[in-house]
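Hi D.,

Good news: the full-assembly prediction came through. Inputs first.
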Amino acid sequence: MTAISAHAPELSVQTWFNTDRPLSLASLRGRVVALVAFQVLCPNSIAMAVPQARRIHDTFEPSDVAVVGLHATFEHHQAYSLPLLKAFIHEYRLKFPIGLDSANAEGPIPHTMDRYGMRGTPSLVLIDRRGQIRKHAFGPAEDLRIGAEIGALTQEAVPGADAIASAASAAQPSAVGRPPAAA
Amino acid sequence: MTAISAHAPELSVQTWFNTDRPLSLASLRGRVVALVAFQVLCPNSIAMAVPQARRIHDTFEPSDVAVVGLHATFEHHQAYSLPLLKAFIHEYRLKFPIGLDSANAEGPIPHTMDRYGMRGTPSLVLIDRRGQIRKHAFGPAEDLRIGAEIGALTQEAVPGADAIASAASAAQPSAVGRPPAAA
Amino acid sequence: MTAISAHAPELSVQTWFNTDRPLSLASLRGRVVALVAFQVLCPNSIAMAVPQARRIHDTFEPSDVAVVGLHATFEHHQAYSLPLLKAFIHEYRLKFPIGLDSANAEGPIPHTMDRYGMRGTPSLVLIDRRGQIRKHAFGPAEDLRIGAEIGALTQEAVPGADAIASAASAAQPSAVGRPPAAA
Amino acid sequence: MTAISAHAPELSVQTWFNTDRPLSLASLRGRVVALVAFQVLCPNSIAMAVPQARRIHDTFEPSDVAVVGLHATFEHHQAYSLPLLKAFIHEYRLKFPIGLDSANAEGPIPHTMDRYGMRGTPSLVLIDRRGQIRKHAFGPAEDLRIGAEIGALTQEAVPGADAIASAASAAQPSAVGRPPAAA
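Then the structure:
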């Protein structure tokens, strides 16, 4: 994973599913965010990225890691509709928030996809607790590596917490059993 | 993963493969250790645990994570031999160190397996940089979860390093792209 | 597989893809037909039945076995559209004929699905060279068994051919290497 | 599958498992035989060919198709032993007959493997009801295709039966539901 340190652009979503109110990255600050861009008609999205998103959602504590799906409609625009996306989410039993990327009047690439410079679907973006992009990958990704990267990010200090305290926190990860107090 | 904080017992190995000299957990202190106990004739070991061990070995930096295989012969003793284990390692192209657990004159359970109270094969033990057991699981384990747990453990301070320095280190994980300097 | 001997009802399709002209079972008489009913939003259809249909199409000679897909829209009617089905077929690189089951003004179950009494998607119907239903299964089906059943059906005599001749033909299957002439 | 019409050489086995008495191809005449050559330390044998052999055994009627395993020890001779093979069969819950190919005093290739000209493990040989080789493949094989080939072979006339009668038999396969009597 190459070092990427750009601040994650805000999401632009025209319709949200699985959430009572619109989500923003700003509102998720302090949590690690796994942003999974997909399309219903993209074979690798359906066979790999969406099931992986579900596993991420099932594996991590919601207070540590937020999974956000993004339907980045950049092709076959006529095929997609809100009823389709709603039925898809129902049939695949997806429980994490999913946003429909905002259509762009000036071209086929929707706004969020454009801001992130995504190359296609599936794309995975990992955003740290401070809102920085730490990974941006196109195509299927291995579970072990993604798990490791998210696991590492969860150990970083929560912004706003006292520096020394957060360092201590980083040494006592919640994702694994706590070590005994240092001698 | 339940919190487990016992100090990891030292390995007892009668023959090592893929290493020039005998390994000890003491010599691996400072690194996260993934100890993978298996048997050549155990279907879940061969279908799942050994390939996962290889993926762990391929995914993490050796300076961060040491994968150690342990052939924990607790049944079918007559079937196993050094030539068998050697040929197995060759055919499966395994590159990480693998030890043959020391036979126990007093019963079928070899010494390391006995010390750890392993319930069978495959078993996975994760040991932190300070030599504490942080996970001990029997049976197949999911890649995403194991990746997350190892990834989190890699972010813990290396023992012996200065406290403030290790805190800084914890905030700048090697497993993921470095964040920009905090404002 | 239970013995089923009903004559296969004719297909009722409102739109065909991957074929120059509408297909009918009557026009396929003399070939074994694998009729695969699916829906784009049905997880088991997409993960298992559609890939299996493609493998059937790739494995058998078209002159022996015709694969026919049927989009049996019986739920989420609002989600489906011709552009969706067209884009799906394009993205999944499907080359065999696929028909959109005729909508039924009197209820949610489309006409072909209704005639066959299908219980849902995916469903697989195997029809022999004489137009008789020989298998009707709901849910995922194992490749080995389906292969065996289709392979056996291909060995049956083509209707209309002379009885003695077709018997000889049955003894010299095209799907496997020809045996030497009997002594 | 290329047409192969050689008469299948007799098996040469030094030890049999899962059978009360030694098997011979001669004694299996009248049945289709799936001969699966494997080695315990061959990754593709264990991951693919042995599970496929088990599926063949589970799918077809024993009176139609005989699955015969052959441990074709052509390398790592020191690693293999009768206790190893016995424990392997126990752990993998294999129920079909398995023979240990007869060691060859003149070289590493055991006798049956040598007679068939097998290129390695896994190898699959399909033998028809009359004892002719109809397929001989090296490496993993697809379930659908293997199922089709075995399914087709089961439809061939049993040798010794009356010609007209066997033709009728071929038109009434047991592997699929019987068709109604021809009009």
